Amino acid sequence: MLKNKTALVTGSTSGIGLGIAKALARQGANVMLNGFGNVEAAQAEVAAFGTRVSYHGADMSQPEQIEAMMAAAASEFGRVDILVNNAGIQHVANIEEFPLERWNAIIAINLSSTFHTTRLALPAMKEANWGRIINVASVHGLVGSAGKAAYVAAKHGVVGLTKVTALETATSGVTCNAICPGWVLTPLVQQQVDAKAAAQGISNEQATRQLLGEKEPSMQFTTPEELGELAVFFCSPAGNNVRGVAWNMDGGWTAQ
Ligand code: NAD
């Protein structure tokens, strides 16, 4: 379905980004990866689907590096047809103790990078009259949790930016939507499970059950594969007029 299309997925060396990159490659898309994880392993996993895979190591907190990455994608593949804004970090602390440097980094990586990639990708998408912008927000783009001020502010910002992008492209073949996962067991969440286990002197399994039990009625993690298939749906013809949604895949978290 996505043969001859190119997807750029930020933060795709692990977790959700890698899951989405693989799902798009399975549909035939060429992929440019980005992120600071195990690049060779991620490239090999995506290349297994037989499409072209490349990598750019831009730091999503640095607008000039984002510009270089978008230019590299354009010169290597002609154009970015599918932009998946996924790179993200987390820091948990109450507002009074929140380190300024972490606040600035989370806003830059989780929110501002999406503005930069979007503004740089839109001209070619509009010219081609086809494009998909998929912003990986979070349930924290829809509801708050104590201790996550920067993350919740950034993700609510991503949901807002998604709506504006969808409105500014509404009469074109370009769509923009957000995905709002609940808990997904990736390195980002494993760190939170480990911190909980250490703080309370409980096992990893108990900490995992507690984490899910506090928020997620299904008591199940959403998987990167499931999120990848939602991204594929947004790229399909059935997604042509799906615009500006914040689609939760959260085991019932935000239904409560
Ligand atoms: P992850 O830690 O596995 O992946 C994050 C990716 O971002 C990695 O490839 C990492 O190298 C990259 N990254 C981090 N800082 C970067 C920077 N400055 N520049 C470029 N790349 C950078 O985590 P994940 O859980 O897969 O998270 C992916 C996205 O999904 C994030 O935006 C996160 O907020 C969101 N999300 C995750 C969950 C969850 O439960 N795991 C839930 C909702 C939303």
From TrEMBL:
It comes from the Bacteria. Pfam families: adh_short. One of its GO terms (biological process) is monocarboxylic acid metabolic process. GO terms for molecular function: 3-hydroxybutyrate dehydrogenase activity. Belongs to the short-chain dehydrogenases/reductases (SDR) family. NCBIfam families: PHB_DH (TIGR01963), PRK12429.1 (NF009093). This is 3-hydroxybutyrate dehydrogenase. It comes from Malikia granosa. The lineage of its organism: Bacteria, Pseudomonadati, Pseudomonadota, Betaproteobacteria, Burkholderiales.
